[in-house]
Amino acid sequence: TPGLFLLATPIGNARDITLRALDILASADVLAAEDTRSLRRLMEIHGIPVGDRPMIAYHDHNGSRVRPRLLGQIEDGKSVAYASEAGTPMISDPGFDLLRAAVEADLPVTAAPGAVAAMDALTLAGLPTDRFMFAGFLPNARGAREKALRGLTDVQATLVFYESPKRLAAMLRDGAAILGGARPAAVCRELTKKFEEVRRGSLDELAAFYEENAAKGEIVVLIGKGEAEVVSEEFMNAEIEKALEHMSV
Ligand code: SAM
């Protein structure tokens, strides 16, 4: 069937791909990938031949040029499978403009859902998952990073960030200063891979740890929401009484 098929691929362990995604990879007329080498390798691992099907690179740098070509294929009745380098397309990865263009052109679109590092991290961190906010990568420059963190101080949800190992310690330290060092947090590293690790603690503890121990690998940082101030009825009444007394003087 013609259409755009957005495929989730593994974030580390090659077997974290759905049977449906493999079926689509086996049957699509056109294969498109952010990184054609990693898609080829993934297909090889799962015994799916590329054959004589076109394998087209589609990423942020060539998107505007390649997009019309991919959409043209769908208009011609072809099925186009797109995979980003790892995990789910559009989650801090390319694919958004491709989907928008397909929707605007009224072409059929569907997705084969699967791995997302943010979701795996939420599953393992032990922080509340009833409300969470995906904040992606913070800006690299310190000033911009601090400003972005200040914009998140009042968010009543678990915050989810992607971070590079180089900047992890600085990000945790800024997070502690701006959001509060006592906030519960977790650093999830190398998820689904051989050296998977989840380190839980307060922002202060985690900042101190990674200042001493340089982190390696791929990282998701989760920060729990600040303690909501619990105000008892007695306290409120006493405060109101005080204010009233003050007014009547
Ligand atoms: N599309 C991907 C997804 O669905 O999660 C994210 C792509 S983004 C370019 C790459 C970032 O995701 C990494 O820098 C890291 O923050 C996070 N990430 C990806 N794989 C990871 C893993 N196995 N463990 C921890 N973090 C991971």
Automatic annotation (TrEMBL):
InterPro entries: 4pyrrol_Mease, 4pyrrol_Methylase_sf, 4pyrrole_Mease_sub1, 4pyrrole_Mease_sub2, rRNA_ssu_MeTfrase_I. It is found in: Cytoplasm. GO terms for biological process: methylation. Its EC number is 2.1.1.198. Gene3D superfamilies: Cobalt-precorrin-4 Transmethylase, Domain 1, Methyltransferase, Cobalt-precorrin-4 Transmethylase, Domain 2. Pfam families: TP_methylase (PF00590). It comes from the Bacteria. Residues 4-207 form the Tetrapyrrole methylase domain. It is an enzyme of class 2 (transferase). The keyword Transferase applies. Its main location: cytoplasm. CDD domains: RsmI (cd11648). Keywords: Cytoplasm, Methyltransferase, rRNA processing, S-adenosyl-L-methionine, Transferase. It catalyses: cytidine(1402) in 16S rRNA + S-adenosyl-L-methionine = 2'-O-methylcytidine(1402) in 16S rRNA + S-adenosyl-L-homocysteine + H(+). One of its GO terms (molecular function) is methyltransferase activity. NCBIfam families: 16S rRNA (cytidine(1402)-2'-O)-methyltransferase. Belongs to the methyltransferase superfamily. RsmI family. Catalyzes the 2'-O-methylation of the ribose of cytidine 1402 (C1402) in 16S rRNA. This is Ribosomal RNA small subunit methyltransferase I.
